[in-house]
Amino acid sequence: MLERQTLLSYLDDYAPRGRETVFVHHRGLRTVRWSYERLVREAHRFAVELEERGIKSGDRVLLRGENSPEWAAAFWGCCLLGAVVVPLDKHSTPAFINSVARQTSAKKVVTDLVATDLAASDPLLNDNSRLRDIILEIIYTSGTTSEPKGVVLTHRNILANLHPLEKEIKKYLKWERIFHPIRFLNLVPLSHVFGQFMGLFVPQLTGGEVHFQESLNPAEIVRTTRKNRISVIVLVPRVLDALREWIERDYAARGRTQELHDKLVAAESQSLLHRWWSFRDVHRRFGWKFWAFVCGGATLNQQTENFWQRLGFAVLQGYGMTETAALVSVSHPFKQSRGSIGQLLPGHEMKLDESGEILVRGASVSPGYWTNNGEAKERNNEWLRTGDIGELDANGNLFFKGRQKDVIVGAAGLNIFPEDLEAALDRQPEIRASCVVAIDGPHGTEPFAAIIPATEHSNIDAAIKRANDQLAEYQQIRRSSVWPEPDFPRTATHKVLKREVVDQLKSVSSNPQDLSSLITHITGATRTTVDPSTRLSDLQLDSLGRVELLGALEDRYQVSLDEAAFTAATTVADVQNLLKGELEQETTTSYPYPNWPRWWPIKLIRFVLFYTIILPITHLMTRMSVTGREHLNKTSAPVLFVANHVTLGDHALVLAALPFHKRHRLAIAMEGELLRNWIHPPAGTDLFTRLRWLAQYFLVNLFFHVFPLPKQSGFRRSFAYAGECIDRGESVLVFPEGTRAPRGQMHMGHFKPGIGVLAKALNIPVVPLKLEGLYELKRRQQYFADRGMVRVVIGAPVTFDRESNPASITQELEGRFKRD
């Protein structure tokens, strides 16, 4: 008998943790934090909301959306009410959603926490109260199968896997206090049971925090890990591969590839402490608190596992499937066996049949699949055939060999496991990724390798020859082709869709269809294909459009592209070469984002300097008047200020015009290239100029809290910094014209499109600040204004809908200045 009868007992444990953080959602440029008590409160509120909408215990509720605290609250709310959760991937097609809704007779679809009534459907649940009372969720597995199935999971299934984990974790909780809180960055969808385990259940056993973010860009993952002092990253093998490639590309960009190779070879025989010291630069990038990856959902490349372990990081793997509530075996963080997917969890039974297939039995095994007539078919305690081939060593460690259905029976009648061939190929430096499938050859079925080269000039034939040297005669790779796209088609958990690979290999095309679709989506063009020779300028991609495309490409292919190199790309072919690693990425000097201007002694000095120097001089020189302050009197939350830009003194003028509660919590965007040159002068700059620029940089940060907003590249980091300011309770001031008005200009210039992108991403009120009289003052070259000549007009705050088009936002803001 399990100690806990339902998962709700865990929810009861959360309330006493009070205001401790449970979820942190990095949502675009903003960060949202939820406490344990808020999670409990919102879960109960959601349960009441469902009940008021007519949902009863046993009714099915479709839950679709990105990882978020709201998703977790909706899940627990359904549990409280007894409703059955049907989680769907956020990328599920309307046809798939409708099919699942019909099969489950779902009463509600919850998307982005907006409940939508469904049309009346056929009979609800059959009179099977025993199953109805304990069903927790129905998870539809798409995976690599052509027929998705709804796997029924009960409270008992989940608890069977959580109980041994909780028991083992309790042994180490006394040490957890030293590192509390343990922070998990969960990059696996909550719509999958592995994502739920590592997002909703396991971290909370330690009182930990779970961080969510949408981007799978390796650079963003590393930045989030360091900035938020993450301890554990939860991810699928493909993302771990991408992080490895990011490290390798970084060493290559600095001309240190051979050094990396030599260090990795030496690390094989070194202690953990020695490895950590050898790769301390990598550990510094991730942050000193980070120590482990938890990887699941697919097979991990052995070479990738060895790579991270030699760098001094732990790589924890588990084996399971949706039908076993995520886990059958799991590796212990302090008792690992290299290459193993762990040892059997207590309370489970496992055996291998004569073919090596893994068979499982125990309380975690699903009672069956959901059927169209509204019932689950029970298994009556028979063995679950996983379809996976495995091996066990003398110590009980399980090793994954491959999918039984993917096994290729060669001409000699011997089984060929594609995973073995892929591992041999992926070890070759010329190969970035490989996928081995079965095809019909002249002598029967044989393996065919689809290969993504590491570079355009990679000698694939030589790589295959070396791979074959590591394989038996019957495993030899005799047929292969280069995959025409930067990545293979994958599921939501990044498993390769081998069926689609086979289909595409039958009609291999060199057209970059996937890249074309992304470009046409960003540009809104009607064309369905884009020729590699097409110039990006012909696609109406402005600088911000390029940034949007850059982000989409990085998320799609899990690569990190240098923004300066991408800005320099002129054709679609250049973009393809960047994705393949062929176009050398420029190593540009980064823009400065110092923390010291936020230190309280600096803020105190800035406060004193403002009232003793800046404010008196500003009033003396401008004799300014201010209208519209009443628009800010009731606004305590951060806002985005936008102002026209005329003189070097605009920063001081705005600060003097603002009310006290806004004046001293303000970050000001400044020309990024100028700030960078001040602190990192171009080669050949004389010593006097270097010292003068360094002094200017220090003083402008001392008097005004500024941050760089570049003109050419680097927008993403600048926008992210603006989001960090807002999360800290600071307002942000931006001059959307991008430059000061030249002498003689008597009107405001056009706003750059970036202000629309920033306003939409920050999702906060925007306050226009119109500076009047400065154009005439500048034209006259007059330093002291006449009374009434200079006026600051503070407009009413304006908010924009999340669905607003950035171009429309830019146009609306510019129009407000011209109308006032």
Oligomeric form: single chain
According to DSSP, the number of beta strands is: 32
Give the terminus-to-terminus CA distance. 73 Å
Catalogue the unreliable spans.
119-133, 508-513
CATH class placement of the largest domain:
Alpha Beta
Q: Helicity, in percent? A: 25-40%
Number of helices: 31
How many domain modules? 4
CATH fold assignment of the largest domain:
Glycerol-3-phosphate (1)-acyltransferase
Q: Please state the CA-atom Rg, rounded to the nearest Å.
A: 29 Å
From the spread of the alpha carbons, the general shape counts as globular
Mean pLDDT over the residues: 83
> Could you say which structural class the secondary elements and strand pairing correspond to?
alpha/beta
Second-tier CATH architecture of the largest domain? 3-Layer(aba) Sandwich
Main beta sheet: strand number and arrangement?
Answer: 9 strands, mixed
**Percent range for β-strand residues:** 15-25%
Describe the strand arrangement of the main beta sheet, using strand numbers.
2-1-10-9-11-12-13-14-15
